[in-house]
User: What shape does this take?
Amino acid sequence: MPSPDSAVRVADLVVRFGRRAVVDGLSLEAKTGGLTAVLGPNGAGKTTLVRCCTGLVHPISGDITVLGLTAGSRQLAGRIGLMPQSAGSWSGIKTVELLRYLAGLYANPLPVPALIERLGLSDCAKTSYRRLSGGQQQAVNLAGALVGRPELVFLDEPTAGMDPHARRATWLLLRELRANGVTILLTTHAMDEAEALADQVFIVDQGRVTISGTVRQLTKSGGTLETVFLSHTRARAAS
Amino acid sequence: MTTLDLSPAPAPAPAAKRILRHGMIEARLLIRNGEQLLLALVIPLAILVAGRFADAAIANSSIASMDLLAPSVLALAVWSSAFTSTAITTAFERRYGVLERLATTPLGKPGLLAGKALAVIMIMLGQLVILTSAALTLGWRPEFTAPSALLAVLIVILATATFVCLALLLAARLRAESVLGLANLIYVILLVGGGLIIPVARYPVVLRPVIEALPTAALGEGLRAAAHGHLLGWPVPVLLAWLVAAGLAAWKGFRWTS
Assistant: This one.
């Protein structure tokens, strides 16, 4: 039985693409109302984990419970927000148009003008998505994940491509979300992001969790989170 | 700065509103896309006008050519919107993560499919109105009867559903750039060789059974016959067989992520 304290519980998850195990016995729990960071190198299985949690990829074995329900259940639709790693938007749509459309799928959405202002997108509200900078696109993607006022959000590398100002503004927003009771599960490569935000960190390599704990627990022997990361993951050969 | 209430309050909008919203946004984006407009309207209109004034290549006289050409061009419009546009649009939605995002919203997978169907219907209705008006202006005098018009509607519905299923299958299995090239190539090949514009009777005898088995020929022949007030039966079972096969393949083979 999943703990009522766990918004997401993943147990012994295995996903194969062809003969390759992309996720290989991964287990983790994300506490309700907390911010859980999944750290891992490229190809570690982070995006596949998120896709399994949102029901888009079906594992060959293992269990996933999301908000007490089986991952992919129709009853979850709308209760979770997703910021995919890829754009998550039509290229020709304007920022305000996309967010109004997404808001229209919900009964109690965040007010779009205020959300646009909060994320610093006022100057590009009427700009096509393809003409936005990488950081602006990330901000739009984040807004799309939040507009429906979800209980749980999955953020796949939410600050990739953002400048330091935008990153700090996003961190502030994520802290506010957590303070308002939203559970956050994010994937990242950025150690400083995990250190600044995470209540719980799971370091993933080759499809499984190699070590987990709070930042303080992971660094109690004196190293930094980066040294812990490096000692618990393997380098990929450059392709 | 405006204060946002970030506390969770998830609740879906009513299903009909969600589907309508999605249909409207897809249709609006498609209308803005120049390449899609070329497929949806410019090419069919060009064929209509060229057929009316250039004569003979498709029929033996300009008057007869409009009687054949107008329903053929309507069939082409269905083909371009339901297959080519849907395949290209969906392939890029998959690549850009649009499908991934929407599958987790209250729209969900069934709503996404219903919204896509609504967008295709809205675009096709626009095409049919514009192309029919143009054809009537150019001298088309259709001879639909009530039964033949009903049969034509049935054939268009079956063909649309079949083409959309084939488009979703194509969009799900290949990279977006490959779908872009292949969907356009298939569009042109079946425009010329699929019985859409050119009546099956004008193809070499040895090829006719093969062409008659194509869903494009079933649509083209069915609409041409209906526009003359004739009831042509064989397109319905051909389209039904394609719809079952394409529907099952799309159901099994569709992928939401790239």
Observations:
- Residues 15-253 of chain B form one domain.
- The longest helix of chain B spans residues 62-95.
